[in-house]
Design goal:
about 160 residues; alpha+beta; Thiol Ester Dehydrase, Chain A; six-stranded antiparallel sheet; two-stranded antiparallel ribbon; globular
């Protein structure tokens, strides 16, 4: 499928989107931050895992519900790599958890696989504090024709 726009957003557009999105209550609640390190991928980080985010496998590993939320954040934000002004909604996630996520931090990285005018396919992975891949996800996101109310981000 062809991408809906021939040009990618400028780095300053993505930085502004991340700045506004990081103000959202949901990301603050999780202690997560979004960034676009190279304009080709989304990165969601939790730099300090809290006690209530642990409990996976009855251990101190990060709980699977937290990892699923990180996948939803990461996959759901990938359309910003194409057009950060449009609303989006995650339609489907398919997750595989391969090993426990241990350590004090966790990072999700997502990339666009293919995109059309209204549907985007993306992949993501979760890495533990040592950079070991622990989980993978494939997702589908709906891209709306309706812009964000602020014209920039879902955060406002």
């Amino acid at each position: 499928m062809p991408e809906p726009k021939s040009t990618r957003p400028r780095p300053e557009q993505l930085a502004r989107y991340a700045e506004l999105f990081n103000q959202s209550l949901v990301l603050k609640y999780f202690g997560a931050r979004v960034s676009f390190p190279d304009g080709e991928r989304v990165e969601i980080r939790i730099d300090q895992i809290r006690p209530e985010q642990r409990g996976g496998l009855g251990t101190s590993a990060v709980n699977g519900g937290v990892l699923a939320a990180l996948f939803d954040f990461a996959i759901g934000v990938t359309p910003a790599l194409i057009d950060p002004t449009r609303r989006t909604a995650t339609m489907q996630l398919s997750m595989t958890f391969e090993r426990p996520v241990r350590g004090d931090s966790v990072r999700a990285e997502a990339r666009v696989s293919t995109a059309g005018q209204s549907i985007l396919f993306a992949t993501a992975k979760i890495l533990d504090s040592q950079g070991t891949e622990c989980a993978h996800c494939r997702g589908v996101v709906r891209i709306s024709q309706v812009p964000w109310d602020s014209g920039e981000s879902p955060a406002v």
